[in-house]
Structures are given as C-alpha cells and as structure tokens.
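Hey, can you fold this one?
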Amino acid sequence: MDITEYINSLNKDKITKFIETTNSDILVKQDIEKKVSDTSWMDMIEECIPYLDNIIRNPRRFIVQEENIVPIEKAKVVTEESIRHLAQNTNLIQEVHEDGTVIPLKLLNVYREETVDLYENRFIKSLVDNLYMFVQNKLNESDQKSYAKINNIVTYTGVAKTKNANYKISVNLESNFNDEVNEKKDGHTIEERIEHIRDVLGAFRNSTFIKSLKESSPVRSPIRKTNVILKEPNFIKALELWEYLEKNNIVPMTSMVKETKELKDIEIKEKYDLAFFIDSDALVENKNREDTVYNEAIISKLINDFVFSGNVDMKEFKKLVNKEFKEASKRKEKIVNSVNKEFKDFIDNFDKKSKKAFALLK
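Sure. Predicted structure:
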C-alpha cells in the first residue's frame, strides 16, 4: 500500500477518538525579517522624463539688452536708440559741420544678447542635478528588492492513551522561508530601470542647455511659483517631480522590520495531532503484520512437521485440520463462557451485597 492509499484508508472516527484523548502542546517561534522597498519613485521619474526632455530640447529664452556710452571710435553699431540718445544729450556732440554732419564725442552703444539664464531654466537644471544624485545614491544602495525571511522553529509534544497502549511524542522542526520580490516592468529588472534613468539624466546634464547654465546659481526650495511654472504643462510636471523628490528625501522609501513572534496556532496543532495519530497507527499496523508473520510461522512449522512425519494426502489433511479447528473453537468458546459466567456471578453477588449494605446503613 502506498502512502496515498494509506491516508485515504484512515478511519476518521478512529482519528477523532485518538485526538480527543490526546494531551498535546505546540509552540511556533518565528524570527521575521522584512524589507519593503518603495519603487514608485522609478515610475514617477520615468513618467516625467518626456516633459523634462521637451524643456531641455526647447528651452525658454529672452533677450538681454545692455547700454553703454562709449567714445565714438569704440562704437560698433549706430542704432536708432543711439541717434535718439544723442539728440537728447547734445553735450555729447563734438561739432556740427556746415553741411549738417554731426560729429559725436560719445555715443550710446546698445548690446543685445539671447540668453537662457531664466529662473525657470535654472529650476530645471537644479532639478536634473538633484535627480541625478538621487538615482546615483539608489544605485549605490546594496539592494532595491523587497523580500521576506522567516525562520520557524516548531516544538510539539503529545501524550495519548488508548485501550492497550500509551504513546508519547516530541518533535522539533525548523524551517527557513525566503521570498524575494523582483519587480519587472516591460521586461526590465529594477537594476536595469535605475541604470536607464541614470543614463537619461546623464544625457540631460551633458546637453548644451544644461551646460550653458553651469555658472548660474542653483534654485532651492521653496520654488517660486511663476506663471510659467504654474501654467505651462511641462513645468507643471517638473514642479510635481521636485515636490515628490523633496518629500521622499525626508521620508525614507525603504523600511526594514525585524521581529520575533511566539504563536500557539490551533490549526498547526491539529495537523501535528493528526501526524501523532499516524505515527501511532503505523506502530499498530506494524504489530499486526508481526502477528501475521508469527501465525504464518506457526502454521508453516505445523504443516512441515505433519507432512514429513505422516503419510496423509491433501484432502485428508484438510479434513483433519477442519475437525481439529472446530473442536478447538468449541473448547475456547466453553472456556470463555465459563469465565464470563464466573465474572457475571461475581458482579451479581457484589451487587446484592452492596444493596444489602446500603439498606443497613439507612
């Protein structure tokens, strides 16, 4: 009989009766270590990268105009502003020729230059720099994965009494459970996603736009809520990312829990009680097999002795065995009946004497 057949053949009533008479106890000790890494920051940065890319590829610009009054020989371009300024400041005129030609002593020189050094652009540069350092720190961390490690130590003891036997059991079981969460997105592991984000941010930092702001002063919180930052979709998303990053630099995104628990779990105890029954039942089954082997040995010796010492065929042998078996059964029955009668008489006699004694006491 295989193990499945044996389990299916177990008598449920017999199991219930055994467990009801069993005095058992169980203690489960758990050492738990859990690490939970919040990887939502990757989703946030990946979501905002296209918006940052739009800003970096098409940065906002404005014209810087610088005005200086310089000697005429240093003036490079004469503009309408220069002429208007000279007309308003005649003291800068050196001489006027008869033909009306005006020779200025000094002239207003106007310089116009396109620049990206705006507050909004400096905000983007600071955001990219902060993001790059944040991601670099994440890469330097030993592990971004979430996991659970549980060490279980189970101690079970039990005592059971049946009609013919007493049983004791003591079991110690230790197990180690490791469960690692390796989240993937679009087929990419956590490490691959972090490296990709770092590479994109590195490309942003090497762009002409970001490099042109190398000497500009960095932006710090609180962010000035200009019209561009509040209304332009790309900058709205950049501000959202700045605030998210600032919050998660203050509140750790990785939590570690270590604890020890001691449990007395009823469901686990019931399963161990069942295992206790199976262990004891296995011994009974083994004893039954031993009895069968013993009986077979007796019969085998009897037949061998009879066959080798006598001259009887199979038919005659069966006839003799049946006759002797019936006679032996009758004698056993007679003896059993006699013992039962003696026991019954003793009980009846004891009952009569008990009643008589109680009557006298009254």
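The chain is about 55% helix and 25% strand. Let me know if you want another pass with a different chain boundary.
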